[in-house]
Write a structure and sequence with these properties.
The complex is a heterodimer of chains A (about 280) and B (about 290). Helix content of chain A is about 75%, strand content about 0%. Chain A is built from 15 helices and no strands. The longest helix of chain A is centred in the first third of the chain and has 33 residues. Helices cover about 75% and strands about 0% of the residues of chain B. Chain B is built from 12 helices and 2 strands; from the N terminus they run H-E-E-H-H-H-H-H-H-H-H-H-H-H. A two-stranded antiparallel sheet of chain B has the order 1-2. In chain B, helix 1 crosses helix 12. The longest helix of chain B has about 40 residues. The two termini of chain B are about 35 Å apart. The chains are: A mainly alpha (about 280), B mainly alpha (about 290). The interface between A and B is large, with 96 and 97 residues.
Chain lengths: ~280, ~290
């Protein structure tokens, strides 16, 4: 009896924690489904007359603030940024795991980078970008997103490659395969799981990055994490809260869906990244 | 290890090394040079060396110290709350997660949302006319505080940051709790340990490294807080919510004082080295456990 009571308490705590932790998203989603008139009269969490009008309004103001443009910027920069982080870290991780080079200096340097506030590099990178014309470009933003993600990706890849059975690579060497062929045809296929899991996490971190998006872009390459706030001032006078809420939900949906579907890989990567760093 | 394979190894490191030199090494060099120069946008390519004046200016600025104090206090408080709450949830809910692992997905969702967007969402939720929180506080208590005013901004930010990142502590501590071998607990139970004693003398010591790591990660992340703070209050609340990152951002983008911003950056870098050194010492000492 008391055991069932404890179990009930666990479910209650769980439900309460989920509601409280996710409260910002839940409350914003609710507001986004109220009409503009209802938002001003009813601030509660109960919707009287649900409507999608706010979402329609977001897409209707594309001539001034184009949500699709911001979403595309985020998508392109995040994809390039995570792919680049993997492409740079994968050979390096292999070299560290198998050739024992770079473990003394490069690995600790990159790992410790996670503890350094990136604003330190923001100003010189801004000045550098200004000189070479990378300001307000998707590629310029992607380069920085790769930089942000390299530490985590490198830690995950290096530790997983070190755990692979070396015998298969040795057999490949005996058959005359060079390092690059081994990497492409033996190590990469065996690492697909880690590569996938770390790219997902890198993608989410890239999508959610804000500081560099704010500093390095003005309009052409603005990611949605920055562009979302533009809609707060969209109507000149007061904030159109329904529109703002709808924009925030649209900007949050991609990582939320990925997070729900791939929670296991993400959880494992986060844990491994924390413990092995 | 033969010489050719060492060479091959170096070759594989080359792309990453070049990338880091370009995007970290060179910027760091610029940081160092500009921090000892008088420099503005007009002489960005030919800064005029002036010595330590920028550092002196940063150190003499009360705003610099209040930003440092804000970040330190914020990071410590938030990290402690997150670890304590995360630990309690992880242990109490462990039986649920053991049977239904997917339940943890809902706890992880807050981490998927951009902190900048979370800050914006709270602007809506805490808004005096359209926000749900003031609405319900008014219904229940008949009053609500000025969440983003001088007196409340710090507390509000602590709650915002804690709600978003306690899931991280929960996740790490849950996996460390779940990794404790049942044999250990059975052996302790045979010796008569149960309930709270089992937790304090068996589980807690075994989880200590994970607790330490979680604390440091959360501290570092909250110490450099920028996104949610910027979107929710900016430098508002009478400057009482200026973190180190916000201070540097403003020195550069609002005031245009490159030298000051860069000198403050270098001081922040030095501070992070101190923290890193502390972490490495502490974890090195823990290693034999």
């Amino acid at each position: 009896m008391s055991k069932r009571l404890v179990n009930l308490a666990r479910w209650l705590v769980f439900a309460l924690a989920v509601l409280v932790l996710n409260f910002p998203v839940i409350a914003t989603a609710i507001t986004s489904l109220k009409s503009e008139a209802e938002i001003t009269t009813n601030a509660s969490l109960i919707i009287e007359a649900p409507t999608l009008a706010n979402y329609a309004a977001v897409f209707a103001m594309a001539d001034r603030f184009d949500i699709l443009h911001f979403l595309t910027n985020s998508l392109v920069a995040s994809l390039i940024g995570s792919a680049l982080a993997i492409a740079l870290a994968f050979p390096a991780a292999y070299a560290m795991a198998r050739f024992n080079v770079g473990r003394a200096w490069l690995l600790p340097l990159v790992v410790n980078l996670r503890a350094v506030p990136l604003i330190i590099f923001a100003i010189p990178i801004y000045l550098m970008y200004q000189q070479v014309g990378l300001l307000d470009t998707r590629f310029g933003l992607a380069l920085i997103l790769a930089l942000v993600n390299v530490p985590l990706v490198l830690v995950l890849l290096a530790s997983s490659i070190a755990d692979l059975p070396i015998e298969i690579e040795e057999a490949g060497r005996v058959d005359g395969a060079g390092t690059l062929r081994l990497l492409a045809y033996v190590v990469a296929p065996m690492s697909l799981n880690v590569v996938a899991a770390s790219s997902v996490l890198a993608f989410i971190y890239s999508w959610n990055e804000f500081l560099f998006g704010l500093i390095m872009t003005t309009n052409k390459a603005t990611p949605v994490s920055v562009g979302a706030s533009f809609f707060f001032a969209a109507s000149g006078g007061g904030v159109r809260w329904g529109v703002a809420a709808a924009v925030m939900i649209l900007a949050t949906l991609p990582p939320l869906v990925i997070g729900l579907v791939m929670y296991r890989q993400i959880g494992r990567s986060m844990t491994a990244g924390a413990v092995k760093g | 290890m033969s010489r050719t394979s060492r060479f091959e190894g170096r070759l594989l490191l080359a792309p990453l090394t070049a990338f880091l030199l370009a995007l970290l090494g060179f910027p760091l060099l610029l940081d160092v040079v500009y921090s000892v120069s008088r420099v503005g946008f007009e002489n960005i390519r030919a800064p005029e060396l002036t010595g330590l004046a920028n550092y002196a200016k940063a150190i003499a600025d009360p705003g610099f110290w209040s930003a440092a104090w804000f970040s330190l206090r914020f990071g410590l408080i938030v990290a402690v709350i997150q670890v304590v709450v995360g630990l309690m949830l992880a242990v109490f809910l462990a039986p649920l997660f053991a049977r239904r692992p997917w339940l943890i997905a809902f706890m992880m969702l807050p981490m998927m949302v951009a902190p900048a967007l979370v800050g914006l969402m709270y602007r809506l939720i805490l808004h005096e006319f359209v926000g749900a929180v003031p609405y319900y506080l008014l219904e229940i208590y008949g009053d609500f505080p000025a969440f983003l005013g001088r007196d409340w901004a710090f507390t509000t930010l602590v709650v915002v940051e804690t709600l978003q990142w306690t899931p991280f502590a929960l996740l790490i501590l849950h996996s460390s709790y779940a990794a404790i071998s049942p044999d250990v607990r059975e052996a302790a139970a045979l010796d008569g340990a149960r309930g709270r004693r089992l937790f304090v003398y068996i589980d807690l010591p075994l989880m200590l490294p994970a607790i330490g790591i979680t604390f440091f990660i959360r501290f570092i992340d909250s110490f450099r807080v920028f996104d949610n703070l910027y979107t929710l209050v900016g430098p508002g609340a009478g400057g009482s919510t200026t973190s180190m990152s916000i201070y540097i951002y403003q020195a550069f983008f609002k005031v245009g004082d490159i030298g000051l911003a860069v000198a403050a950056s270098m001081l922040l870098l030095a501070a992070s080295f101190v923290v890193l050194w502390l972490i490495n010492r502490l974890t090195a000492r823990k290693a034999p456990l």
